[in-house]
Each structure stands twice: as structure tokens, then as C-alpha cells.
Model the fold of this input.
Amino acid sequence: MNMNCLFIPLAACLLTACGAEKQNASYDVIPKPQVTLLTQDSPFRLQESTVIAYPENDTLLKRNAAFLAGYIKESTGYAPETKATAGDDKPAKAIRLGIDPTIKNREGYRMTVTADGVDLCGQTPNGVFYAIQTLRKSIPATAKEADIMLPAGQVEGEPRFGYRGMHLDVARHFFDMDFVKEYIDLMALHNMNTLHWHLSDDQGWRIEIKKYPRLTEKGSVRQRTVIGRNTGQYDETPHGGFFTQDEAREIVRYAQERYINVIPEIDMPGHMLAALAAYPELGCTGGPYEVCPLWGVFEDVLCIGNDKTMEFLEDVLEEITAIFPSRYIHIGGDEVPRTRWEKCPKCQARIRQEGLTDGNGHSAEDRLQSYCMARMEKFLNSKGRQAIGWDEILEGDVAPNATVMSWRGSAGGIKAAQMGHDVIMVPNNYCYFDYSQSRDPKSEPFEGIGNYVPVEKVYSLEPTAGLDEQQQKHIIGVQANLWTEYISQPWQAEYMVLPRMAALSEVQWLQPEEKDYEDFLHRLEGLARLYDRDGLTYAKHVFAAQTDSVQAR
Ligand code: ACM
Ligand code: ZN
Done:
């Protein structure tokens, strides 16, 4: 007998009679759970026959169960059966989803693991969803057909901020339904709950408005795009795309299923060249205007003196509020040059009629912008909605109930919080994910806007710095922005947000004293394996830095 004959039956035994391969789960996930208490008890064995149980008649937990089965399948190749259970029925050897009103935070979760089962609880289905995300990230990213051993113990988490956002600009470059859904999935993976969807800008109008069909017929297509950073050379290729109202509703639904609220932004009264190209009578000069083929801030803005413009904005917001159930609607307000208004008879007449004057460091034209924002805020409030504006809305008389999004650093947010406004912190020097991840932007795989926001910088953000305890309560959340002037492909968008989203997720989820960058980097390795498995493109600077430091030692 030769050795091969002996070896073959043994190998067969490993694959069959000896059972499936075993792999261990680890609760070292991102964002880090606040509590991980392991016991010496036997682990839970997750295997193909494991059932995911949810209370009967609970449609949200039923859907959560389906998500968990899908996530387990992504790792193992098998999808556990999901099953409704009646009353107090607690099936053995199962993963059991349930609501526990004793959990303090609305979005908090608790995962209890024993050899007999895994209980995933939240005060709400949202919390259960974060328990599921935590379990999903605990399982090795690739564990084909393996049984997963989950260490016995208790794992708990709860978010620091109720608003955990990511922004996506689909105006500068259009990103399709598939990509927006992928982006939402990435947000869910990182325990985020708010998508800020930037739907209009100088370079394209991306949402169907039935009363103004030319917005998408004409305003959604620019005839050419500047090459590189306003080089004066153009690609001579039309770029366009928009979402029908039905498609936008489909995005809202898709996000809602993942406990993500979609906040639409219609940026006004600047960044409106695409709308002006479609309806030139809404501008101070009457045009002609062009859907803008280059990047920057442009003097042609909406004419606030024209009643038709005000009507237009209210009509647009009327349709937007019908599509998007979000309590918050973003009305922009950033980067609005006053030059046209200074010369426009209609705008000057509005300034006189409304008694707008200069003073306190603001011009009458600054107050014309405030007039526009306050009027739109009032319109939204009348529909039970809240306005969000960029921090420029502080220049003048800020709309009384507006939430301020602080992007030019944190100063605007600090000022707004001191004035008693709610604030979302999006400081560009920490949270602009279109900025480079390398000190040497030329070494990046495609040309970007420059600047430098590495993962460690994102991680270091303390959103309430500079505020006293009372003012800190006005910081309702944190978000990162993905502006897409220099990002035209899905892989590029992935590269810019990953892994900075992971760092942001800990800023959003953890208390300052719970953060630890070195520990985060260690946990990021596990999450990166999931990025790899899913074929995502991500920046590897932090991993390269670790390798360098290992080599240096
Ligand atoms: C902005 O980056 N203009 C809000
Ligand atoms: Zn005007």
C-alpha cells in the first residue's frame, strides 16, 4: 500500500464524519460595544440548522431576522431559517430577537450569548438592528460552511449621538439607484442612521419635480465637464441623470428598512445654475444660463425680489415634502454671492419693502438671504417640518428654528449652539471625505480636491469641544460629506469613504473617554476583511502605516 491510499480516507473524514469546520467570532467590532463581558461558559455554536426567532406579528423584527439571515449567509454561505414564535416561547439553540423596554437608549442594544442561545434585544427595532449589525461584524467575514463559535457573555452598545449622518452629492456627478443603495448599506454596516442627499446644484438637478418638468429635462444634463481642476479644457461629453419621484421613494423605503432617514437637500438660493438654465426667469438677469460645466461658486443665484422665484421654491418644497417623510429638510444656504442682488431692481425693491437694512456687520443683501431662508423655514414649519441650513445662514438674521450644519470648521456650530440652535457638526477639516487621505495628493489613485483628512484626524474629532454642558446638548449629531466634483465612479466614492466612515462611526457612537485610536486600528483589520470580501475599494494608508511601524521596530 502506498501512502496516498492511507491519506485519502483520512481527508474524507475531516470533511464529513468529523463535522463542519469551526471558526471563532470576536466582539472586537466597529463601533466598539460599550460593554463586553465574557464568561467562562461554553460558547454558542451557530450552524446551518440554527433558527433565528422573532415574536409573531412583529413585522419589523421579522424583517430584522431576514437581514440577519442574509448577513450570516454572506459569511458562511448558509442562511439560517427565520421563524415566528408565540408569546413567551423561547426556542432553544436559537438566535432570538426581542424588544426590551429596560434598555435605556432608544437605539441601544444588548446581545446575550450562552450555549443555549443568543438574545438580541433593543428598546426598539432600531436597537435590535444594531445588535444584528454587531453580531454580523463579530462573525469572521469569510467562514464558508463553517460553524461559528460565539463566546459566551454579554455585549451592549448605545450611541452618543441621535444623528449619525453621511452626505452624498449626486449633483456634481450622478450616482445611480444601485450605488445609492450600496451607500445606504455601508451606512447600516457602520451603525449610521441619516443620509443627507444633496439633490441639486449648479452642475445638475437630480430630482423630478412634476410642476417644473424642465428642471430634469434640461437641468439634469450638463453638456460638458471641465477636465481636472478648472483647467479650461472640457471633455465635450454630456453628463446627466436624475431620480424620478418613484425612484426617490424607493430609496426612502430602502433606507427606512435599514433604520436610516433620508434628508433631501435643495440648495438655495445659490448653487442654482441648473434650475436657472431650465427657468431663466428665476434669476436676476434673466440669463441665458448654462448647467454649469465647471466647479466653484457662481454669481448667478436666484432672484429673491421675484415673487415667481419664491413661489417656485415653495412649490419645489411642497413636492419634496410629499416624497420625503423626513422631519428635517435641508435648504442649503451656502456660498451665495450678493453681487447680482446689489444691482437687481427687483431684489432692491424687496429689500425696501421688507425694511431690510445693513447693520451689526451684515449688509441689506445678507438680510435678503435671511429673508429667503426664514420664509422657506416658515413654509416647512407650516407642514410640520424643520429646516436645516449650512452655517452661512448665521450671516444675517438666522431663521428662528433652523438647525445649523457647521461645515466651515466648527466655529459656526459653536456660535449657533450658543445662540440656542441645534447643530450638526460637519467641520470640513475633519469630515470632508472628498479631501485627500494622503499628505501627497498626487500619490492618490485619482485626482481630487487636495487638502488632507487622514483617518486619524477623523477619529480625533470632538464635536462638542468649546461648549459648556448646556450648549453641548444642542450638538445633535455628526456627519461626513462626500462632494463629488472629482469623484465620478462608484469605486472612487468607496475609496474616499472607506475606511474613514469607520473612524466617523466611533465619533458618532462612542463617548470621548471610550475612544482609543490604537485599539480602533486593531479592530479595523476585521472590518477591512469584510470590505475585502464584498469587493469594496478602500484606502489602505492606515494599514500601510502600521506595516511601516512594524518594520521600523
Ligand atoms: C459646502 O461645502 N459648500 C457646504
Ligand atoms: Zn434679483
About this structure: The longest strand covers residues 261-268.
